[in-house]
Amino acid sequence: MKICLHRGLLxxxxxxxxxxxxxxxxxxxxxxxxxxxxxxxxxxxxxxxDAVGYxxxxxxSSSHMSAWACLRGxxxxxxxxxxxxxxxxxxxxxxxxxxHLQRLLVQYHDTYYMREFLSIREFLGQLNRSHIxxxxxxxxxxxxxxxxxxxxxxxxxxxxxGMTKRIRYNQSGSVTGRLTVESxxxxxxxxKEHRKILKSRYSDGSIVEIDFSSLEPRILLxxxxxxxxxxxxxxxxxxxxxxxxxxxxxxxxxxSTLYGSSHKRVSSxxxxxxxxxxxxxxxxxxxxxxxxxxxxxxREFSENGYINSVFGRKIVPRKNSNHIFINHFIQxxxxxxxxxxxxxxxxxxxxxxxxxxxxxxxxxALVLDIxxxxxxxxxxxxxxxxTLENFYGTFPISFKTIS
Length: 403
Known about the structure:
DNA polymerase, domain 1
């Protein structure tokens, strides 16, 4: 087990590495080391600490930090703790921090947080900056009356090289792990019609969106080893209602029921008042095995104070409510599934030497910059859908050109 305390944490010129009960200083971070005190490294432990809610004492102590804060105005923000602290105190703080980090690594060894969580972090860190049509962006900003939209648009203002700032996602910014943007372009809140400001890096290229089709209900059916068809709502209409309900109504009833909407709420969303919504919801719950899943998640929460996604991510709902358990379980699992699926897809595109560049993840959609001569190849590759280990069936994805 190799742990690297980043030089930014220490305020030193070198990193401090601990391995096999020995310390050594180095100028570059070893590839196989777990890192603490950096924000950019894939194997940075702070992101795992935030995700699991692990408590670790500040380095150095709060009293030292407070004392330095009083002097910061005159002496700057860089603290070279290796010189400020006495050798014995530096050793004590270092050992205490290492003890915390070692316990963390032992506790979460070979769990979701050391596997899928970091794999997702690696993929998000490899997303490329996007070229921007600066003239179009300025015109949209000038014509936009909504201040919130204007603020979002301004986050896409290009740097001197014509590209956006690098986006940084937060994997722990929500209860379920659904992504939030920590810094950079606010892609998650950019209006769909404004995505046309994204410009291809290729002289003959396009910005496209690859999107999972009805991912969340498919995740639930996969959880119970149920095969799905390309159009899941037509399948449900046939299986449960003998096609007496239209696809659009089945979609409304299905999604509303999965996310805990009441009979009254669902009825208000359907114009045809002759439909027995109560019976339709009952059939949907049974079809998706909601009662058994609800009991299982309720039992998990009672015993542990949290529930687990399919991947093993800990989810701590703010309310003890069965429909919230279901909601969080689906959303958390779908979030990780989609990004891991996109990572596998991008690896496949690289294998086929497709000229493409992944730019953004928008929940269950991936924004890609693709050379036009390779678009047909991409469509052929995605036509077979995406499969993921430990998930039953194939998950279809769609292709749409943005600009």
